[in-house]
Amino acid sequence: MVILLFVVITDYSFLLFSRFREELEKGLHVNAVMKNALNFVKEPIVFIGSTVLLSMATLFFAVYESYRGFDQYLLLQ
Minimal CA–CA distance to 1: which of 52, 63, 58? Predict the structure, then answer.
């Protein structure tokens, strides 16, 4: 589960930093660049995060016992 958290955080960081770099090449001020980058990646991060949350909730309510213990680590944190 810790690996899943690292993967998600790394994925979001790459998404944000790549967009930040694209906006920075336009020659804008750093504050404006970060604001534009955050506005661009806000929607994908919300949808990806909700998908992960929904999948963890599905695993929590699964009938198969091996899957039920898979997500309890994330719920406790």
Answer: 52
